[in-house]
Amino acid sequence: MRLLIAIVAGVLLALGASISVVNLAAPSPVPVNKPLFNYGTR
Fold this sequence. Notes:
By secondary structure, the protein is mainly alpha-helical. The protein is 57% helix and 0% strand.
């Protein structure tokens, strides 16, 4: 019984870690595609 609880806890921790890593890697859903410099009307 303890082994089953430990396995379930490990799976939940692994899922939580992977979800947090994905959220940290892509915190903003809008991609940044603005140019670094504004050249005006050229």
